[in-house]
Amino acid sequence: MSPFFVMSLLFGLAFGQTASLCAPSEYTIHVEKRECAYCLAINTTICAGFCMTRDSNGKKLLLKSALSQNVCTYKEMLYQTALIPGCPHHTIPYYSYPVAVSCKCGKCNTDYSDCVHEKVRTNYCTKPQKLCNM
Amino acid sequence: MPRQIMDSYGKYAAVTLTILSVFLHLLHAFPDGEFLMQGCPECKLGENRFFSKPGAPIYQCTGCCFSRAYPTPMRSKKTMLVPKNITSEATCCVAKAFTKITLKDNVKIENHTDCHCSTCYYHKS
Lengths: 134, 125
Description:
heterodimer, A: Cystine Knot Cytokines, subunit B, B: alpha+beta, 3-stranded antiparallel sheet, signal (chain A), hormone activity (chain A), disulfide bond (chain A), glycoprotein (chain A)
């Protein structure tokens, strides 16, 4: 095996040892209402990625504010509204959702965020799916 | 002579294809637990120079873990006492295993021995 070939492999392996930072990422949300005939699949932008954190050696020595951990969350967002197809007249067919404009590694704001650890597995359709044309 | 030229071209082609396939693999790697481009080191043990003494190093878990924030699914929102528009799934670099060390003046600290990305406890505001 030539040295140049081996160096190329090692370079590639070494280059892949760190992670992508918190940034806007593509994501599909599924929206359905009980009264409506269809489930709407919306391609939107969320915040996802890696943030730097550390675990203190002396948790009992420090104030809670000093034990801060940062997570990937929205920095700037805007709200868009989509129309769910196949809804009866007495139902409000509109659905508003946040779209990430920019992201940051920061605190999870409990005023408007549900801060969890495990993956939430409720983003799926049970009805025929239609794609949202924005 | 032409055979030698063909051999050398073949080697260059093989090297180029190898580099290209490695980069493509890195670009298409999943974010969950996989690492992409330079910028954020993985969660692992590092020496805590503040507590370490010569011959008695103290290690701390430091590094990057995956998290994301997205619109709360409608199904989840209906079950919430106080509905929230955004769901934040997060993991933080924490000690998986540690030993307890007592320093001077009876100060007790942890010496981390293994790390992993797990539950965050100090990330809420």
